[in-house]
Amino acid sequence: MEFIEAIDNLITSLLSILGNWGAFLGCIFILFESILPILPLSVFITLNFMTFGPLIGFVISWVFTVVGCMISFYIFKNGISEKLYNKFKNAPKLSNFMDVMYNMNFSKLVILIAIPFTPAFLINIAAGIAKVDTKKYLYAIMIGKISLVYFWGYIGVSLIDSLKNPYVLVKVLVLVFVVYVISYIVNKKLKIK
Hints:
There is one protein chain. The protein is an all-alpha fold. It has one domain (2-190). The protein contains nine helices and no strands. The longest helix is centred in the middle third of the chain and has 48 residues, at 41-88.
């Protein structure tokens, strides 16, 4: 518990020292987190929630997360995918994974993206190399990142309370289910394969 309180104090201190510049840097780091997994997305989303409040902080974090994921996706789809695919196409496990990623239906892709502990950069890379349809991936990212951003913002702002209260996890599970239903409806309306 002391470690969690120390992280909470660190974020609060950073916020007071950097002010709005800290939130701006947080937005830029959110973009890079999709490519460089060493950056802690949860800290930057928390920074935005604490600086701008839950609504504006959510929107800003969601937009930058979606943009960062799409940049990473495009880099691997258009620039690097052929080289990597040709290099690893003889590896059966990688080939099977790429087939699964390419053939994954829209709702499953949304759920995979919506799970807070799924490494976004790996999903972006895999989807890019597998040449997943851009429209399908964009819609999946836009819907799936809703619960992820909400989860990290809510957990980050009320870190200590959320660990004491299992109700928070129930809310996240309900949100993931709602995201699944939305993805199912969007899939039916837009006929995304």
